[in-house]
Amino acid sequence: MVHRNQRLLHSNTRRPRHFDRATAIRGVARGGVGGVVATAVMSIPFLVATSRGWTDEQPPKRISNEALDAVGIDADEPLQNAVATVSHFGYGTSMGAVFGLLYAWRRPPGPAVLHGIGFAIAVWFASYQGWTPALGLHPPITRDKPDRRIVVLIGHVVYGAVLGAVFNPIGRRAR
Fold first, then answer.
1. H/E/C letters for each residue in 65-112?
2. Along the 175 residues of the chain, how does pLDDT read in single tens digits?
3. Residue 19's Cα: distance from chain center in Å?
4. What is the distance between the alpha carbons of residues 97 and 119, in angstroms, rounded to a whole number?
5. How many CB atoms lie within 10 A of CB 124?
6. Residue 167: its pLDDT value, please?
7. What is the pLDDT of residue 128?
8. Neighbour tally for 137: CB within 10 Å
9. Exposed (0-12), middle (13-18) or buried (19+): which is 4, by Cβ within 10 Å?
10. Is the alpha carbon torsion for 102, 83, 47, 122 positive or negative?
11. pLDDT value at residue 108
């Protein structure tokens, strides 16, 4: 007898015929690489906003500085920058890997770019309204500066578009 949840898991015809370990690994690897590239590209709006004075501090640096303070590490500027960069790329890479695994598992219909954007907005919301305020690392979206809110959201939309493009490059038909 097939359990109801098993039928739900196997009802999507867009799922690869055989979702095995190799498919999962390929999805995670592709998503991880996409996450690195997308993180680099999403940093551009952050850098522009900071250079134009629209935000006082880039969110990844603010979050990592608060984390360093929380554990009692008095870091100088070069260490702060290094921790911010490594943590931002680490988080972006890991979220890309999660997207890659989910995308390889379900292969939802429609352009992968739109799925990437939706995923990135969910990550933005979960991070900036969820775990970073809960840990005292960043104010929630509702209490953050309006300019920074917009810049961070734009950055995540860019991240999602680039991440999705890794799975379905522009000009190539969706499978």
1. HHHHHHCCCCCCHHHHHHHHHHHHHHHHHHHHHHHHHHHHHHCCCCCH
2. 444 444 444 444 455 556 788 888 999 999 999 999 999 999 998 889 888 888 888 888 989 999 999 999 999 999 999 999 999 999 999 999 999 999 988 888 889 999 999 999 999 999 999 999 999 888 899 998 888 889 999 999 999 999 999 987 654 555 5
3. 24
4. 12
5. 21
6. 85
7. 93
8. 19
9. exposed
10. positive
11. 83
The Cα angle at residue 122 between residues 121 and 128, in degrees rounded to 5: 85
Report residue 153 as tokens. 């959201």
- pLDDT at site 166: 92
- The single-letter code of the amino acid at 46 is F
Residue 120 CA: distances (Å) to CA of 35, 113, 160, 172: 11, 10, 5, 22
Q: Which of 111, 98, 109 is nearest to 168 (CA)?
A: 111
Nearest to 151 by CA among 82, 87, 133, 159: 159
Q: Per residue in 142-154, is it b (16+ CB within 10 Å) or e — as a string?
A: eebeeebbebbbb
Tokens 């993180």 belong to 39
Cβ distance 174 to 112 under 8 Å?
Answer: yes
Q: Which two tokens stand for residue 64?
A: 């990592």
Tokens of 97: 């890997």
Separation between Cα atoms, residue 26 and residue 32, nearest integer Å: 10
